[in-house]
Amino acid sequence: MAHQSTPSSQKALMMELKSLQEQPVEGFRITLVEESDLYNWEVAIFGPPNTLYEGGYFKAHIKFPVDYPYSPPTFRFLTKMWHPNIYENGDVCISILHPPVDDPQSGELPSERWNPTQNVRTILLSVISLLNEPNTFSPANVDASVMFRKWRDSKGKDKEYAEIIRKQVMSTAAEAERDGVKVPTTLAEYCIQTRVPSQDRSSDLLYDDLYDDDMEEEDEEEDESEMECYDNQDDSGNEDS
User: Where do the UBC core domain residues begin and end (predicted)?
Assistant: First the structure.
């Protein structure tokens, strides 16, 4: 197996993957790009109901460094996204993914940046929050930021931003159909936790052989902090689609 010199990052990623597949974050589906590579994950994101992204099927890659969790992963959308905090190449600009260095120019506090207690679950929740509530103070896409502010400040009367998002959402339907995925459009469907069926038992055997004790502790912690469904979606202007 690759990366034999970094078993601690492999172990951390294996435990996180297992946790996310057994107790998924609502609105996300996680798989490995290749079964043998724990450092590259594919994420499918379903647009939350009652937002501009409702009905959307967005794909992204998470790429982990070999010293994870001490350094943050990168999160890149493969689907074309028009958003104040997403670069043209799909890279997401979000504080939680920035290394924990003291950079007064950025306007970010070190506490807002990456630290080893963060994990994929917190990244996913930050991304879904960012989609609905962009940060316009340090935009990665200035034009999208200006357009979003016009839409927000006009309470949805300036429809240019909303119409671009809607077109992007509609354009994802073909890919969802190709992948055989039914995109949730109601809150009830969105809140169903979708477990990804294992392709075979080989990855399970890896977990079972090496990390049974660790996973029991992990599962107990997860049970205590069960995620609530992301149901506070109504923003002013969102009803105008």
Answer: 8-174
